[in-house]
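In response to the reviewer comment on reproducibility (Comment 2.3), we provide here a single inverse folding case reported in full, input and output, so that an independent group could reproduce the run without further information from us. The structure tokens appear first.
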């Protein structure tokens, strides 16, 4: 246990202790026992520009970070190199559902956005602070809420009438490694005309990554094998146009429509120098790869709501979206007299999704309500892969003039049709105790056509119970039990590019994949300190996974070993998450907010290749972070930073013929923001300031890993350098 806590900063521990000092027995919160309200006047001294700026000032609550500041603050990417972030061990939920189970939902005027890419969280950066009347944190369940089953709800309430149209904008310049500079920006228009409220925005976001990698490898007898130096440059750009419309037909009738179009260009170029250490001359080969890639996507979503005179509610929501991805990977041997192509790999995928959900909510007496409804969804993947290599055979221009290679399951269409009737019962047992009970029945058909034809039917009964008890207005206890069915990745059904292994071109698909599901047992405690001092929260959880999806053996020809994502059996995961967000009022520094988080977790499952119990693949021992934000209103200045680290050790991935261990350095970021007399915000931010390195040790085996014949050991480390961002934001 000592090793699991060795990364937890002593400062963070001090924060937790401060929150529990005697005297913190009552809270001066505005609202009832389960709701905390922050009026617009609360944020005036910070001169916020957007609704997101306001949310960032609330202790323990950010749409990006969740309670306790467990996630990165605004402007701090949650991505980054391996070793820097928390574990990612499960796939997401399915459809609209009843809200994100156990997470936090963001609502605007009590409504969530019917969208996935164009969601409520992304809208907060487009709404000006002048439009916000107040923000409330709702900690109890209720039939009047637009979401169910969430940890707590953040409701951003706008003024009913706006005097004029508001414009918000930002212009930014990013400096990347190698002195590469990329401009970008965002413009949003929002306002109201009669019963119509609208937000329209357009953005251009550049991304430049120059990743350098070095790899040393030795043979099974530990003699030198080779040294590889690689430079991979990704010069990406994303362009988005979105709109969010809200029309109030009457006091009881309203509708919303949301639309998004995005274009993402992500071309890559790779230079690879391979030095053979097995010969005295240390012969060097040079490879070049060109990987143009692009994707286009659109999404339309909307909802209609009617409120009855008897406090009943009818609501229907829909989403339609499409994501078109294409990538071409060509590899060349760089020779003295020119280049010679040795690989052509083309992949194309088109994913479409349609979801419709309708429900009717009505009261049962004074303390209960019931929501009845159904959801239907169709998801389709059209996938095609073409592979050509240099060698003997008849070349074809369809694979870049190389020899075509027949790849199993290369051309396929995968479709899922899903129906889900549901009932959600909410009971206010007394002013302190609420119980929400959910019962969903899911039936689905997954069919695959093309190189393979297969069709299967599935049924799941998905109950959930969520009990919440307000011990005091400050202390809330929550417990829930739920059966969750995880969303399948349709890319796992078909052959795909293998971007994890330079020595392998493609990875196999699995036509027999079925949904992973689990029983979730969660206990949460949240304590809001008095006088807006901050928030402490903790979560103890146990998840019993069934049909866990990891790598399995799908070999057909023993001369060509193949693995794919598949169902490996049942496993268990358990852990603890703790967060703290504290204002330093006890030191007369109310505008200095410190945040800390700690996650400690473990898991157990039987490995299908080696036959012994191990952790879930790619699962860390935990994660911890420490951050601060200091607003200095008299100087119109604020600054902050975050340090994040994943707990390394036994983070592994076992495949049919290799074992990988991952590790990485912590990440640190800082920002400073100044608001001038014109209301412009000037922001300077540094990301990955520690220039973190992510590393992987791979043990390759001759034949199956179970044979234990070690062939090669690779030691590989990569880094992408620091990023400096300068941004100017304003409204008019």
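Designed residues, in position order:
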């Amino acid at each position: 246990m000592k090793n699991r806590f060795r990364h937890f900063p002593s400062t963070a521990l001090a924060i937790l202790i401060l929150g529990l000092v005697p005297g913190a027995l009552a809270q001066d919160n505005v609202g009832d026992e389960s709701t905390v309200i922050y009026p617009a006047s609360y944020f005036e001294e910070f001169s916020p520009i957007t609704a997101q700026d306001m949310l960032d000032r609330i202790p323990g609550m950010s749409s990006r970070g969740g309670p306790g500041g467990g996630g990165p603050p605004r402007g701090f990417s949650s991505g980054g190199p391996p070793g820097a972030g928390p574990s990612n061990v499960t796939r997401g939920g399915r459809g609209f559902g009843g809200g994100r189970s156990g997470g936090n939902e963001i609502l605007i005027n009590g409504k969530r956005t019917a969208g996935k890419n164009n969601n409520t969280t992304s809208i907060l950066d487009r709404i000006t602070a002048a439009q916000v009347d107040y923000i409330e944190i709702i900690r109890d369940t209720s039939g009047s809420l637009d979401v169910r089953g969430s940890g707590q709800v953040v409701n951003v309430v706008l003024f009913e009438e706006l005097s004029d149209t508001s414009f918000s904008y930002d212009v930014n310049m990013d400096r990347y490694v190698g002195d590469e500079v990329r401009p970008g920006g965002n413009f949003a228009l929002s306002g109201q005309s009669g019963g119509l409220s609208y937000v329209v925005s357009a953005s251009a976001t550049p991304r430049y990554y120059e990743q350098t990698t070095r790899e040393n490898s030795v043979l099974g007898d530990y003699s030198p094998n080779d040294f590889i130096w690689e430079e991979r440059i990704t010069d990406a750009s994303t362009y988005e146009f979105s709109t969010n419309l809200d029309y109030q037909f009457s006091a009881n009738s309203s509708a919303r429509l949301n639309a998004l179009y995005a274009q993402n260009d992500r071309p890559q170029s790779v230079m690879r120098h391979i030095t053979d250490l097995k010969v005295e001359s240390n012969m060097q080969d040079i490879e070049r790869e060109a990987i143009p890639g692009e994707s286009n996507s659109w999404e339309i979503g909307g909802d209609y709501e009617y409120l009855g005179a008897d406090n009943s509610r009818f609501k229907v929501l829909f989403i339609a979206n499409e994501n078109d991805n294409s990538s071409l990977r060509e590899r060349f041997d760089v020779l003295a007299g020119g280049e010679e192509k040795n690989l052509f790999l083309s992949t194309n995928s088109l994913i479409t999704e349609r979801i419709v959900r309708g429900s009717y909510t009505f009261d049962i007496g004074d303390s209960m309500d019931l929501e009845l409804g159904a959801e239907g969804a169709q998801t389709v993947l059209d996938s095609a892969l073409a592979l050509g290599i240099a060698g003997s055979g008849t070349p074809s221009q369809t694979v870049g003039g190389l020899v075509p290679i027949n790849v199993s399951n290369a051309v396929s269409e995968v479709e899922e049709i899903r129906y889900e009737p549901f009932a959600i019962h909410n009971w206010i047992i007394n002013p302190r105790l609420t119980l929400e009970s959910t019962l969903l029945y899911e039936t689905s058909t997954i069919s695959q056509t093309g190189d393979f034809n297969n069709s299967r039917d599935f049924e799941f009964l998905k109950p959930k119970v969520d009990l919440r008890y307000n011990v005091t207005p400050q202390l809330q206890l929550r417990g829930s039990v739920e059966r969750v069915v995880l969303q399948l990745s349709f890319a796992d059904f078909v052959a795909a590019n293998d971007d994890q292994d330079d020595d392998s071109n493609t990875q196999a698909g699995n036509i027999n994949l079925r949904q992973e599901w689990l029983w979730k047992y969660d206990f949460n405690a949240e304590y809001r300190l008095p006088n807006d001092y901050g928030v402490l929260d903790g979560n103890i959880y146990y998840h019993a996974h069934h049909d866990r999806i990891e790598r399995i053996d799908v070999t057909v020809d023993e001369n060509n070993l193949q693995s794919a994502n598949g169902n490996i059996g049942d496993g268990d995961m358990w852990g603890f998450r703790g967060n703290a967000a504290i204002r330093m009022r006890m030191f007369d520094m109310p505008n200095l907010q410190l945040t800390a988080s700690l996650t400690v977790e473990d898991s157990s499952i039987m490995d299908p290749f080696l036959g012994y119990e191990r952790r879930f693949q790619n699962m860390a021992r935990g994660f911890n972070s420490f951050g601060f934000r200091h607003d200095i209103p008299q100087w119109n200045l604020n600054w902050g930073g975050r340090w994040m680290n994943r707990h390394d050790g036994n983070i592994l991935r076992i495949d049919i013929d290799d074992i990988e261990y991952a590790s990485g350095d912590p990440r640190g970021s800082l920002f400073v923001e100044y608001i001038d007399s014109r209301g412009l915000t000037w922001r300077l931010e540094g990301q990955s300031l520690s220039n973190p390195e992510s590393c992987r040790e791979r043990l390759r085996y001759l034949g199956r890993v179970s044979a234990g014949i070690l062939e090669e050991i690779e030691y590989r480390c990569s880094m992408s350098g620091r990023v400096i961002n300068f941004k100017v934001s304003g409204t008019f």
